[in-house]
Amino acid sequence: MEMVSKVLASDLEWWFHGPPECQHMMKVLTGETALNKGFKFEPRSFTSIGDCVITEGWEGQAYWVHVWTLKNGLITQFREYFNTWLVVRDLSPPRWEIKQNSLTLWQSQPRDLYRRSLPGLVLAI
């Protein structure tokens, strides 16, 4: 817990989308539970976009995406999504030569869930 407190901003902003029983990572970050209790943090992919790091993985029956925002070596924002398709879009002013599809920076790739119907969200950065 001491190590975790060194990388979290004191005013950490946390967003969660999913069933309440899936709030695993926040419980780990706050010291409420140990990382090895009930949740396997085994990311399948890591992607860095600007000051954000996006990880996605699979835990039992839940597909998850984490979006970590870092500033000056600290985690300032943490977004946690469970069983949700996520698309990350760039909302900076478009240039005429850029096609609309190029504004999508990242999207969920849950290979095991391609036939499953999940709610979708757009994260604008």
TrEMBL record:
Gene3D superfamilies recorded: 3.10.450.50
InterPro entries the record matches: NTF2-like_dom_sf, Wun1-like
Pfam families named among the record's database cross-references: WI12
Superkingdom per UniProt: Eukaryota
Protein name as catalogued: Wound-induced protein 1
Origin species: Arachis hypogaea (Peanut)
